[in-house]
Every structure is written in C-alpha cells, then in structure tokens.
Amino acid sequence: MTESSRDTKTALITGAARRIGASIAKALHQRGYNVIIHYNHSKDDADCLVESLLAIRANSAVAIQANLQELSDLDRLSESATAQWGHINLLVNNASCFYPTPITDTITSQQSDNSTKLVDWNTIIDTNLRAPYFLSLSLADELRKVNGAIINLVDIYAERPLKHHSIYNISKAGIAMTTQTLARELAPEIRVNGVSPGAILWPENESTEQNAAQQRIVSQTPMARSGAPEDICEAVCYLAASSFVTGQIIKVDGGRSLYL
Asked: What's the pTM value of the predicted model, to 2 decimals?
C-alpha cells in the first residue's frame, strides 16, 4: 500500500459486476475512488470491468467473490476489502435478488412444498436484507475511522408492494428500515442513506406479457419514460459526497411513487 493509496477513497459495491452495480462502480471510479467489485457468479463480467477500470487508472480496482447468503463469506469479504487498500470509505449495498413469489400459488397448491418456499424466503431475505445489515456492521469500525458512509439500494416497492413479489417487497421494506435504524445507531461518525429506484433497468429475458406491463408502468410515470442507470449513479454519488445527509432515502423513479 502506497501513500497515495491511503489518500484515495475506497468503495466496496456489492453485486457490481453487471447492470446498475457496474454503473455505480464506474461512476465512483470516475470521481476518484478506488473500487472493490463484489460478485458471486459473474466472474467474467467482474474481471472485464476491473480490467477496463485499471486501463484508466492503475491500482484502482479489484474484484472479490463472495456468496452473500453465507455469513462466513460476509466476514471474508469485509476483511479482504479492507486489506486491499488499508481502509474503506464507502459501502454500497447494491446486490439484490428479484423474482416473483406469488402468494396465490402457495395458497392454492395441492401439494405442500415447504422446502421450496423456505429456499425462496432465505434466498431473497438473506441477499436483500441480512447481507447488507451484517456487512454494514462488519465494516462499521473501519468506516468509523474515516467518517465513512453506507448507501443501500432500496426500491419504491418498499412502501407500495408489487403484486406477486411478497418476499421481495418484505426484504426491501426491511432494508429501508435498516437504513434509518443504522443512521441513528452509527451516527455521528457514519452516514447511512438509501436510494430507491423506480423503472430503471428491466429484468432480462422479458416475455411479451412482461413487456406490456412495462409499458403500463411507463405510462403511469409522470416523466413518461424509463430512467437510466446514470440517474441512480447521480444519487449515489451525491449521498457519498454529502457530509450532512443521513437517514434519507431518495426516490429516483420519475415520480411514479406519486401514483402507487
């Protein structure tokens, strides 16, 4: 570790190999951060992103694998991330698991499959809620040393539930409360905020029916269009830089939450 690396702010972004997480990593890197790209399965994407960032600035990016559903991996991720440049200034809890879990399927099922239901619960809750909470606590001592910050990616559906996504809604409502709770518990040394995206990036491999649903969402958005990953990045970078904002969750949704 060089003297210059100690002077450079460092950010750990979970789920940063692809999509919005990768965009956040690029935006922070552009603003001078060294970035730690967390991934689980997307090794090729993570390595490609790191390579592109290193081409811009040497010794400024690294990828670390961890399964966020394993508590031991969270500790390892925390330790490895801190050891990389000797400090952590910013944690962005971006990684998220999103897929439908309709209650109606459970209620009308003729054959009990509690094991499958429990897998869905654990997969979504552990990734979206438990991991950000415990990773934040694991890094709290390091963040406290530098008056660092935590930014959680929430969702507008944390307040108004999305039909057929009950476990996801619950997890995001939980991370919203986690944001506010940790903002009180970790103040004044650490600021904790959230960003709630609306229609930004759609899930991949969408069906015709899902495409129609997307159009309905856009038609109900005052800005009359989808957002872009850069819109989320702007909010994240603002919260990372602000020294007097904590406990806040910024909705970046084109005004859609006005009608939810």
From this structure: 0.92
